[in-house]
Amino acid sequence: MNTSVTKPEQHTRRFALPSFGIQVLTGLVLGVVLGLVARSMGADGVDATTGEVDPNWLTETLSTIGGTFVTLLRAVVPPLVFLAIVASIANLRDVTGAARLAWKTLAWFAATALIAVSIGIVLGLVLRPGDHTSVAAESATAPGTQGSWLDFLTGLVPANVLGLEGSAGGDGSVNLGFNVLQILVVAIAIGIATLKVGEAADPFLAFVRSALAVVQKVLWWIILLAPIATVGLLGNAVASYGWDALGSLGTFAVAIYVGLALVLLVVYPVLLRTNGLSVKQFFSGAWPAISLAFVSRSSVGTMPLTQSVTERNLGVPRAYASFAVPLGATTKMDGCASIYPAISAIFVAQFFGLDLSVTDYLLIAFVSVIGSAATAGVTGATVMLTLTLSTLGLPLEGVGLLLAIDPILDMGRTAVNVAGQALVPTIVAKREGIIDQETYDAPRGRTAWREDAPVQEPAPAAA
What we know:
Elements: H1 2-14, H2 20-41, E1 45-46, E2 53-54, H3 57-91, H4 98-127, H5 149-155, E3 164-168, E4 174-178, H6 180-197, H7 202-223, H8 226-241, H9 250-274, H10 279-296, H11 299-312, H12 318-331, H13 335-351, H14 358-370, H15 381-392, H16 399-402, H17 406-431, H18 437-441
Antiparallel strand pairs: 1-2, 3-4
Helix pairs in contact: 2-3, 2-8, 2-10, 3-6, 3-7, 3-8, 3-11, 3-12, 4-9, 4-12, 4-13, 4-14, 4-17, 9-13, 9-17, 10-11, 10-17, 11-12, 11-17, 12-17, 13-14, 13-15, 13-17, 14-15
InterPro entries: Na-dicarboxylate_symporter, Na:dicarbo_symporter_sf
Membrane topology: Multi-pass membrane protein
GO molecular function, one term: symporter activity
């Protein structure tokens, strides 16, 4: 009897898939290899009509695999954000000091952004990337999309209850997109209304919770594709961009990545240790989201996985994580909104021979800490950079100097963004005494989390 049971178990272990982290690492390696192969194959030719380069079959395949995964993730984001925030606000009635949690989250967002932008300013002054570049002056062109403080104010007002935005395509089609900031506003309003209505809202709240469970199940299926998607996303990036463009902007790229490394590998570990949290456990728990952010270059697209690992691996209660992580995905960007615009603004000033005063550096810090929310409805670090340059009165044409290597830099920027979006809820939960320390300290499973793991319910906050 015992023998017949033991053998199948051993057989299952022998052919079990490697852990999720190993699968993603394998995907990273395969992506680089296939990307280099695709790049060595060259293009299939040039379209005689449009003049665009036709990618070879391998590059096209990698692009399709990676793009499909990001599209699936983005499709889940709107219902997930809406349902999770409505449910979490309703759950906050069972959490003592909910308002305190929200304010402390925003305070930590601002504090870490201030540290990041300070590092960026120091690196810009020490390495002086604008004085060590061979980029041609004729590359200076103003971008078509610019950020402004008005974008932030108008972005807060939902165009419709779903936060959807439509744009006309060149072939007469209509493309629909979503504005995460507007979805947040709508969800917060409905969540608060649910609290105010009381018992009459119980049927609606039951529907929201049921729908959220269904969406999360679909999300689980999508996340299982992440290792395969990693091959496509990174492979396409290597095949499409390579590293040739780094030559003329080498010092600038080094400054950006040194700044990102200091924040990710020095500042964040110091904050974790200061708050009594294991650095190893944090990075092993957040790794699936950080690695996906690196290859996908999308904080919003990675947000479902960021929220999941924050709850399942880092022990942050769902009632709090489902509010803090979506908020962070739109406003917490230490890479895109702090380090990058700080070094880039200094680069532009040095390139054009303009001197920055102490007031200008303070303005850079102000825009980085406060202004990241202004770009929530208009994605992209380029928008944040134009907001910084316009605030300082620097030439917007300087943005064109940096666009050649932006995809290469964006991978590191997004990885740091997502790491910070998982870090702050974890620290706040620890300081408030609502973190599940056993979950945080537990050995990591074979996947990003166990599908059947119990959901961490909200616990009373510390007095």
